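User: My advisor, Dr. K., asked me to get a structural model of this assembly before our group meeting. I'm new to this, so sorry if the format is off. These are the inputs:
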Amino acid sequence: MDRGGHGGDGGGLHKVPLSNPERRREVFDVVLGLLAEVGYERFTMDLVAQRARASKATLYQRWPSKAELVVAALQEHQPVVTGPDTGSLVGDLRQVLLSWLAGWDARDRGLMLALLEGSRRDEELARLRRDRLGSPIRRAAEAALARARRRGEIAPRIDEELALELPFALLLMHVLVLDEEPSRALVDRIVDGLLTPLLSTSGERPE
Amino acid sequence: MDRGGHGGDGGGLHKVPLSNPERRREVFDVVLGLLAEVGYERFTMDLVAQRARASKATLYQRWPSKAELVVAALQEHQPVVTGPDTGSLVGDLRQVLLSWLAGWDARDRGLMLALLEGSRRDEELARLRRDRLGSPIRRAAEAALARARRRGEIAPRIDEELALELPFALLLMHVLVLDEEPSRALVDRIVDGLLTPLLSTSGERPE
Amino acid sequence: MDRGGHGGDGGGLHKVPLSNPERRREVFDVVLGLLAEVGYERFTMDLVAQRARASKATLYQRWPSKAELVVAALQEHQPVVTGPDTGSLVGDLRQVLLSWLAGWDARDRGLMLALLEGSRRDEELARLRRDRLGSPIRRAAEAALARARRRGEIAPRIDEELALELPFALLLMHVLVLDEEPSRALVDRIVDGLLTPLLSTSGERPE
Amino acid sequence: MDRGGHGGDGGGLHKVPLSNPERRREVFDVVLGLLAEVGYERFTMDLVAQRARASKATLYQRWPSKAELVVAALQEHQPVVTGPDTGSLVGDLRQVLLSWLAGWDARDRGLMLALLEGSRRDEELARLRRDRLGSPIRRAAEAALARARRRGEIAPRIDEELALELPFALLLMHVLVLDEEPSRALVDRIVDGLLTPLLSTSGERPE
DNA sequence: TATGAATGAGGTTTCATTCAT
DNA sequence: GATGAATGAAACCTCATTCAT
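Assistant: The format is fine. Below is the predicted structure of the whole assembly, which you can bring to the meeting.
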């Protein structure tokens, strides 16, 4: 399409072997971009090959099927969510959500959809979906909860498990169903308007 | 599935013109079943034709494209959610959720996924998705909220809009991401473990 | 390739539906020609489509796979071998062989090879091979043998089963291994030079 | 299969240059095994490389094409058929057949088929086929015939050339068409039930 | 010399859609 | 109005062969 020239096409490690880690990342980038753009079914090896300036045969040499290429690319796209100890449960949760927000990538909405879609055809992807969509924040949030318990911060009558799921469920819904990009504003509404009244003994809003 | 008639290859109304409303419903049933089963992309006109015992050409005569057939079928599959006045906000919300739960159809998880998937290709489906997944309960819940406001039941510091979204967001996540069927138990956990502590001034749990 | 004109391409029932028996035969003719020409593995649906002036999709509508198309075409290519009663076993056998020879088709050598080749991949073809290559003459020959037995024509110490296989085995070998076309001369050598001394009590050579 | 060595991934001589005769034989063994297993067309260089633990590039360095590799391997797989002088023509022929039977290799049926198949694409293979399938026994048999002539053992009215072809043609047919392994029993039937009555003046059956 | 990697040119099969009856 | 049949345009995957190290 663009026959290169004065830059274009994204730099071009092409001709570099796929074993090269940078080249590999380049391919994964194409894969993730494509997945986000068109979803799992319309994602074609031809398109990947074209954009990555590789031949399909080359791709197939490294990843023996479309499914495996997709899985590999997604597996390497693990977001890192950290949750520092702020001293209060709600404060900790806010940090977890903000950390997740900071790691949010423009392609992530599309990738989530692709994952839901593809997981219907491929069991490996289904596993990935449960892991990835079901718990990215969850894990960090659980650590925060553990700390809260040790501190004796208890919220009686609260279903703690659901309370932890709550922020992610809301974010997910806004993103997937309502086509919104996740925003600091939404995180604040969730933390201040729901989590704080629900869990807080302190958890004041910082900054 | 087909409650048959006077025998033959599975009964049904095939050979009856598509203008006939019952025949129409029959076709939609096939469409919804297929969508739920395989999703939007693997849904093929051939399969519809086969299962509905019609010819593809006939289908195309009534619905000029795959997308339009899908949209038409989904539009006719509107769940009805009612919410009687129980006297308290939480009580009302519980009723709304139970009513939604009662209308839940085994195909609905699949249809939600199909909708997410297809809405990527077709703007009409995208609209449907926002409407359908974004607000089925919402509408009824909003009525309950209005009543609560009139009663002066106020939850200070609560983000009411998010609070209304919350139960559906959780249900959605459990259904779509964790592969669970929605259950009375989950509804109870949401109402008793989250909504009640959040909103309740009373809202006791009925039998 | 040849865009028709003043004849060419073999008549051209193309555009006629594949359900039409004559069109069907036309396709089979292309299939058999191709099989004979290039064998089973190099036989491609593309080539068939091109030569038969049909689209691949059309072919796939009628025959759901390459293997099934091949099997169908071969099944319709049954040679007819008759064996009149000449009064003597050797005379009868000669007739059977001559009848087989008369039905010989220039493509048959290629088809035999294709059958051997394809039968390695497809069990249906393997069955066909055993039937077709193992017994075309055999059946007629057995009838002749039965008559001989009724007449009391007995060849002591002869393995009759092998004796019946003998002419076909020799023809097969000359055809498959030595690239010869089967000929009247070869049949005569077999009958006069082997079968007669082996079986004959009379069996004079006619004409 | 691999009689191993000091451990490792299955032993073998991989990493040893292809110029080494033992390594060469090892590769040919892989080639023959593969040919017998899957035939000529499904025989892939990838598979050879894999099983022989060599790289395709290495193979291509020694044999410039698939066809040449196959030819080379087959050429080295010449069966040895001997035929001692037993004093009678039929006795000699039996020895020839038994010698051939003794040299029969489990892969040989597959190799014959592969040869028939491949000889359609490659003239070199076609030559090989005519030589290999057309005459393995023939040559030894001819020597026996020459001795018989010198002894004055004459079979009048017999087509001697065909008579010599006969046993091999029958064996070939049983092997290729009927999927039988060649057996002592079949050889005996051929010798005792056909050759003896046809040619014999003595030729008694030995132990 | 041996090899890891790349690739052009297919090969089978599928699908939304359109004709002709 | 209903249908059997046809089809162009992909999609996934494979293979003999060639480079570059």
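One thing worth pointing out at the meeting: The longest helix of chain C spans residues 21-38.

User: Perfect, thanks a lot.
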